[in-house]
Write a structure and sequence with these properties.
The structure is a homodimer of 505-residue chains.
Chain A: H1 3-34, H2 41-59, H3 62-72, H4 76-79, H5 82-100, H6 103-126, H7 129-150, H8 156-161, H9 170-193, H10 201-204, H11 210-224, E1 231-235, E2 241-243, E3 249-253, H12 260-279, H13 295-309, H14 313-326, H15 336-342, H16 357-375, H17 384-396, H18 422-442, H19 445-450, H20 455-464, H21 474-482, H22 489-499
Parallel strand pairs in A: 1-3
Antiparallel strand pairs in A: 2-3
Chain lengths: 505, 505
């Protein structure tokens, strides 16, 4: 073996060990959110802090920095396999970015965001913006500093976006979002004003026993391809998906006896994330060729299965008999059509996480514009509530009754997650464009869904998206898969086509 | 603060961090045995190996050795509080013992016992002693070496026993066991020959639905005092109890629809362990004043709740109506008396883990005598099967039909657990003696049990046993609690009294 190849082997082993340690941390987090007894939180915080320090120490090991510097100047960086090239380039990118963050700043951000999140809980409960404002001020200041340290070559917003959406640039995203907004605002307002509305009483007035829900959603997740030999489904308060290893993907959900979609669409969403994780290449687990491309691509997978598959008429063609078997009481007098129609209500509302598929993107685009303006110094933190309410009025035709239902509703900014919000709508954009291409490439998808056959769609996503890992950035990846430039058209058209008719449009 | 007090604070913090790391390892183990998906084992092994190395590195940190050496020569070691004195003495004892084990031996033992356990699985399945014999030979040789290194001042068997039963000495245990054996062998043989036998068809011929079992055993565990805000109950194949922190005790069980006692007595046993863990002093968690005294004492707590409480007539006085509510079908024509009688069958059988409470101790004493003879060089490993069968014939009046039902049945020796077996019967001895004293001190326990009131018994165990942590060794601890020297009398008498009459004796 050449010296360069030996260095590559050592760097790869080091990165794999980082992944082993990070997945122990992920297990500790999963357990905390799904299984941990009520009073065990104090000790758990000590375990988490200890592990975070171990993971950080390993990730920033100077020996690894030396290896990556040597590799970047060596023959494999330019002449190795695509996997080797991407591994060298991206491990070095990540290492250098991390190394450029001063330990003092890392520590201060960690401490400040923990305290800010605690302040957020209290402020939201009291609906008191002034209690949170100094914390948001502090977090944005620290994130501005982080942006300047970690990617001095980029605009500050792009420097932060890079943590969630590698290669993403706000100047490319903003016009897409503007176009989308121009088409969604009228659609939402027309739906709100429509005299004909879908009847959703089928889903809101009848009990769906939780035990039956458990069996039902598990069967649905398995049918779309989630491998329960390589994963689990558990209950939690705030659903998430996490991977504890290449063959250990944990999805979670919550249950509402009076509203089946909570668990069903929660599980389809998380299983969509899970299918992506289960489709990454295990031999490259934790290394760029076996990592997700971005949060936007991750979200495209969850939204595709949740919304574009799970809310389709053809899906219910297959799923309705299964649902009727699971809930013979609630669905006695229902039909696939009535159930599908009940899912199509579009209604402007204040809270993002309860929004329907159409208005959801308006929530995101509002946050994207505001957080960017604050970070770039164009909007003072103190003016956020007024700016929020004004934009909300414009887009939704409603004014939030209080700060808790407006600017205080999300934990993201208190947690330091700035540049994270746009990945949700990017995910929707990518999902719609991918689904359109899948339809073109795979023939009669509706016929397949109606027969409960999701294998060709999953196979196509596996080969076009999952297998690429992080070797391409989001836009090039979607463009390669679809043969078309990334555009908001597909999403705008898909929403109009799927939700308009139910409101007589 | 004096320099000595500062060193104590540092040593205590280091030991607490060891406990934090060890409980992360315990979480990884708990998840592996209760939740981990089928195919996740490969990555999990990497996580476990990484953590084991981290825990070992921290535990053997030479700085801690220096602190403990300084403390042992300082004023707190002789003049501090009892907690401080015990902490210094026992942390140093543990550290020095670990430091005396050569890394080469530790590594070789770890590797050999992993391979020996794999060989055991195959050998037991094939019932082929000759496949396992070389591994057992190798394990005993390595354990002899370990004994000589870690406690050169002790007899080799005692040096190993010290890992499980600190302060235990085989010369003190052997006569107790001999006395017990002299009284149990005739009892078992009389039960086997009895013409009158308890009728246990109530428990073996009717289905007890698993969902109802889950709710039922959880209620029983909570009633005896297991705190579900500081613990959980989950399903597994080989039940165990593990603590992931001072307020995070996880008990486990398996379920058999055709045999309620599997889950009920499994849970009472593990909850007994759990009550001990939950009764340790949280502010000293992971340090000697907040650690268990020994495996024997731990087992005394599990056996006391399982057998002396859970199999008593008065327990069923309270529990039967609850059981009847949970299993209205199976128990329609039953009574507290019939159910209690069904639990009293004594029947010699080959497999230790399926044995009744009386014969169980014969299984243990056989292993204690054989493993001691092998370790001390009095019995060649090659002669183990013949020695096993001969002793089995003597004590049980039966001859094992094959090695799988005899010498090959347990994993312990392959796992290097030599000196572990006697703690099971020590636990039974201690439990019987403690229960006798509790009856003397607490008045009408049967009346309390019949009313579903277990609080005064638990309170007494908390103050007499749990609160002492590891500050006393097993014998002195039991003697302090009971006011009597440790003796096999109480166990022998208790077994005779509880099981004899049901067999007309």
């Amino acid at each position: 073996m050449t010296a360069d190849a030996q260095t590559f082997t050592a760097a790869r082993a080091h990165a794999r060990r980082s992944a082993v340690l990070a997945t122990i941390d992920a297990l500790v987090g999963w357990d905390e959110r799904t299984k941990m007894p009520l009073r065990a939180g104090g000790w758990r915080a000590e375990q988490a802090a200890e592990l975070a320090a171990i993971v950080h120490r390993h990730r920033t090991d100077p020996h690894q920095g030396e290896r990556l510097a040597a590799l970047a100047a060596g023959p494999l960086a330019a002449g190795g396999s695509p996997e080797e090239q991407a591994t060298i380039r991206l491990l070095k990118h990540d290492f250098d970015k991390q190394a450029r963050r001063p330990p003092r700043l890392v520590e201060e951000l960690a401490r400040t965001t923990v305290e800010a999140q605690q302040a957020w809980v209290t402020a939201r409960a009291a609906s008191s913006w002034s209690d949170l404002e100094p914390w948001i001020e502090r977090v944005f200041a620290l994130k501005r500093e982080q942006a300047a340290c970690q990617r001095p070559d980029l605009d500050p917003y792009d420097a932060l976006l890079d943590d969630y959406e590698p290669g993403g640039r706000w100047r490319a995203i903003a016009p897409r979002f503007a176009e989308l907004r121009e088409r969604i605002v009228p659609l939402v307002q027309a739906c709100a004003a429509a005299t004909r509305r879908p009847d959703d009483r089928l889903l809101t007035e009848r009990p769906f026993p939780i035990a039956a829900q458990r069996a039902f959603v598990r069967e649905v997740a398995a049918r779309i391809g989630f491998d329960f030999d390589r994963g689990r489904l558990d209950s939690t308060d705030h659903p998430f998906c996490t991977s504890l290893g290449p063959d250990d993907c944990r999805i979670t959900t919550r249950w509402d006896e009076r509203f089946l979609p909570t668990a069903l669409y929660g599980v389809l969403h998380e299983a969509g994330h899970g299918l992506y994780d289960q489709g990454l290449r295990p031999e490259w687990y934790g290394l760029p060729p076996g990592e997700a491309a971005s949060l936007g691509i991750h979200e495209s997978q969850s939204r595709l299965w949740e919304n574009l598959v799970g809310r389709s008429r053809s899906f219910w063609e297959w799923c309705f008999p299964l649902a009727k078997q699971a809930f013979p009481g609630a669905l006695a007098d229902a039909s696939a059509d009535r159930l599908h129609q009940a899912l199509l209500v579009v209604r402007p509302s204040f809270i993002r996480v309860e929004a329907d598929e159409v208005t959801y993107n308006l929530h995101i685009m509002l946050r994207f514009d505001l957080e960017r303006a604050v970070l770039q110094g164009e909007l003072p933190v103190a003016d956020l509530p007024a700016a929020w309410d004004q934009r909300f009025q414009q887009d939704f035709g409603l004014r939030p009754p209080n700060a808790a239902a407006g600017v205080l509703q999300d934990i993201h900014w208190s947690a330091g997650l700035i540049g994270y919000f746009p990945t949700y709508t990017l995910g929707n954009l990518y999902a719609a464009q991918l689904m359109e291409a899948a339809g073109r490439r795979l023939g009669d998808l509706d016929g397949q869904f109606a027969a409960g056959d999701f294998a060709s769609l999953l196979g196509w996503l596996r080969s076009e998206i999952h297998a690429a890992g992080r070797m391409l950035e989001s836009d090039p990846l979607v463009e390669r898969a679809t043969g078309l430039p990334v555009s908001a058209d597909w999403l705008a058209a898909s929403l109009r086509r799927r939700y308009g008719p139910a409101h007589g449009l």
